[in-house]
Give the backbone structure.
Amino acid sequence: MSAKNAEKQGLRTSPRVARRRRRMREALLTAGARQFAARGVAGVSVEELLAEADVSRATFYDMFSSKYNLLESIINPIFDTATFSIAELGELPAADAVAGIFQTYVELWREHREGLLLITVVHSRIFRHFESRHQDLNEAIFAILARAERENLLRNGSAEYSSKVLAMSAIPLLKVYDEHPSGEALFVDAMHALLTRAA
């Protein structure tokens, strides 16, 4: 009986089995993020994911309906975490909120590096699955940048252009500074230089 069927029938799995399942799920999420980011979703087979994660085909399909469902399980939590974190910045003064956007990217990079890289290479046809979550994140960021625009804090004077600059440069800059010992601070400095007026 699969774990899903056991749950449906109200049967409890032991803590040991539950921990093992969590480890296998995490292994698949990690393998998927790494391989999809490196070679694209179409270029990765389920067999390659199974080999890296060291799980069986039955285990994979017990957890995910397809490699695209695995992709959703990698990307959706990143958008959800980012949107929640950005929305929480809304109560801060505009300058602090803009700095908080940059810090959110740093924290996402620490926790979801491969997933962030993956977001930048997902084909537009597939990206439609994440469009509403992406839109929610963009709206949360834009709300902060619009406040910064009203307070004349943006280098280019425009929340719209600043939003585009952020979208096009944040993840590539994180990648550039990834192995630098002061990479996070350099990333934040670079984003301030791109988007905000000198104090």
The CA atoms of residues 174 and 187 lie 6 Å apart.
